[in-house]
Amino acid sequence: MRGTCRLGVERERLEGEDTALFDVRCPRDQEGGPDVAHGGWTAAVLDECLGHVPLLHRVLSVTAELSVSFVKPVPVERPLEVRAWVERRAGSRWYIRGELVLLPNRALLAKASGIWVQRDPAHFDRHQRWLAEQDAEPGRGD
Ligand SMILES: CCCCCCCCCCCCCCCC(=O)SCCNC(=O)CCNC(=O)[C@H](O)C(C)(C)COP(=O)(O)OP(=O)(O)OC[C@H]1O[C@@H](n2cnc3c(N)ncnc32)[C@H](O)[C@@H]1OP(=O)(O)O
User: Fold this and answer.
1) Does residue 3 surpass a pLDDT of 60?
2) In whole angstroms, what is the distance from residue 65 CA to residue 31 CA?
3) How do the domains of the chain map onto residue ranges?
4) In angstroms, rounded to a whole number, what is the distance separating the alpha carbons of residues 89 and 67?
5) What is the pLDDT of residues 83-135, one digit of tens each?
6) Which has more pLDDT, 5 or 27?
7) Where in the cell is it found (predicted)?
8) CA distances from residue 105 to 82, 85, 100 in whole angstroms, order as listed
9) Which residue has the CA at smallest separation from atom 63 of ligand 1?
10) So what's the pLDDT on residue 137?
11) Pocket test for ligand 1, best of 5, 9, 62, 66 (most atoms within 8 A of CB)
């Protein structure tokens, strides 16, 4: 699959049944320090790539938990790769891990693990109804 992505994910493909690979490049406008990515970009791109593993299996899911270890500063505008794999599945939960590496040597820059929960296509419609209820009853909070 190819396309443009504001996070800089340039290409994604499945490698076998449970692993996906992503060609990534941190855009300059995601800089958080001199020539290095903002940590929010690193977390976001790992969320995006790991969350695409169920989608590549045609399963809609949302992130329930995400943990990120920032191992080294991530250079902007350099070829990077994310490898994401399914650790296990339990009920509607997908436990997924991933790593962000610097090409061509595959030096580890960050790693992540998280839980994605499978949803039905009405997930976002239910959210819109919930939001409308919030707007109708300000101060209720549930
Ligand atoms: C169809 C084909 C597609 C084709 C092509 C489509 C193209 C179109 C692509 C669009 C793709 C969009 C992808 C958007 C991806 C985001 O937007 S992710 C955004 C960030 N994440 C979110 O917004 C999630 C917000 N949180 C939630 O919505 C809810 O808390 C959750 C996570 C759905 C859970 O809701 P809930 O009411 O607690 O759900 P519930 O039914 O009680 O529990 C479900 C399961 O989750 C588990 N669980 C709940 N919370 C947690 C937690 N924090 N930790 C661990 N487990 C948990 C429960 O134990 C339960 O497990 P099972 O017993 O079923 O195994």
Assistant:
1) no
2) 25
3) 9-136
4) 17
5) 999 999 999 999 999 999 999 999 999 999 999 999 999 999 999 999 999 99
6) 27
7) Cell projection, Ruffle membrane; Cytoplasm; Membrane
8) 13, 20, 12
9) 91
10) 84
11) 62
Q: Give the CATH class of 9-136.
A: alpha beta
Cα–Cα distance for residue pair 49/68, rounded to 1 Å: 13
Binding site membership of 93 for ligand 1 (Cβ less than 6 Å): yes
pLDDT score, position 51: 97
Identify the bridge partners of residue 14 per DSSP, sorted by sequence position.
Answer: 20
Q: Is 65 in the pocket of ligand 1 (CB under 6 A)?
A: yes
- Asked if 62 contacts 52 with a C-beta cutoff of 8 angstroms, the reply is no
Could you tell me which residues come within 8 angstroms of residue 98 by beta carbon, excluding any fewer than 6 positions away?
Answer: 46, 49, 50, 82, 83, 84, 85, 111, 112, 113
ipTM rounded to 2 decimals: 0.88
CA 56 to ligand 1 center in whole angstroms: 16
Question: What's the token pair of residue 62?
Answer: 């949302």
pLDDT exceeds cutoff 90 at 30? yes
